[in-house]
Structure prediction request, 478 residues.
Amino acid sequence: MALAPHPQPATLRQLLDAGYRQRTVKQELRTNLLGRLATGDAIFPGVVGYSETVLPAVENAILAGQDLVFLGERGQAKTRMARLLVGLLEEWLPIVDGGELNDDPLAPISPAARAIAEERGPDTPIAWLPRDRRYGEKLATPDITIADLIGEVDPVRVAEGRYLSDELTIHFGLIPHCNRGIFAINELPDLAERIQVGLLNILEERDVQIRGFTIRLPLDLFVVASANPEDYTSRGRIITPLKDRLGSQIRTHYPRSLDHEVLIMEQEHLRFPDEEGVPAVTVPGFMAEALAELTHLARRAPEISQRSGVSVRVSVANLEVLRAAALKRAIRLGETAGAPRVSDLGAVLASTAGKIELESVGEEAPEERIVERLITKSIYATFNRRLSLDELDEVVAAFEGGLVLETGDQIPSRNYVRWMRETPGLAEAVRRLTAGDPGDGAESPAVVASAVEFVLEGLHLQRRINKERGGGRLVYRR
Prediction:
């Protein structure tokens, strides 16, 4: 048992002298939420895009003392929000030292804690439980049993000579061990209906029958459930009495703006510690925006199943793969820094195709071909937001005058820097494209190379210059 920093009350008498009062977990959450609202502190740090939609509903539910069910597609931070609720609990909680169920010193419920309280009275020993130990989580699967969630007769204790009617023969499950804390169950509709009935009984009636033996368990819990809308209506369902018990149903959603999508990508992608001799990789803002646009287009694409959803994990995985491609090229070319280019976007096929489900799978539209079309559309949309064709007349005129540029994975960044300086209007286009990025992107050869490729590809998609493929390289010409 983790102990609180010294000094803390070590007995029930000391605890009462310190002014301890009983308080339910819902009262605790409510009081601490009111404090957060008064100071303006975030309730869900790191959760982006919910400040005007999901967050107010969560606040209302907690202030009303209602349990929650988050309803939304995969990758919408449902589990993360449940875990972050722990931050609204007190840092330390006094419990009966030797009890099984985080027992309140003034109202123990486990047989062991009651026995200790009866024997020791005011000298009942107190332990202190940290807030992170007051959270329990379970993924609902069809094979879950009542014994997993609530408890079962312990054959070892029976073999020791105890009667089956003795409460001390019971080995308690996950839910009782979350007493005075938060219990989260993910994908609740996947839980068998008979198990949902047992869950309802222990949450509502406060008793449960194990092997014919009825146990009274006045548990103090805050329950958070999550469900996928597809599972909610088809593959499984939440029984009506349990839905009625879970006070607020809160609908989550995917990021509704590209800025939020980019912020989540940059926040969640896997980071490795800096290593000596390993090139640093910078992702220009226009490339991150193109990845975010790719995900948003996938969420609207008719070929992709929107019932399954397109998770933000697609954006995060694509960013990680794109950074890896830039790092690999920088090492091969002996450069000290790298940045993803348009020619690297083929790498995201592997990280995207496995995370989407098609409405119909056929040879005419395989996943890779659909993703390639979405990549093209994302570059086109990002180019139109970042640049105007009127600003690129000099660049187009240079190609009309016979300029030919060959790009690809094997072209070093210094070549792009030279093209930028020699081609009229291209330096200004790079400056506009990288404006607003941290640092001076136009001074980094790797970022310049990325920007030049993006400008060339955008002009091609706008039908201002031609593009030819050959030998693993791309040739842009009139």
In short: The domain at 12-251 is CATH 3.40.50.300 (Rossmann fold). The CA atoms of residues 46 and 416 lie 37 Å apart.
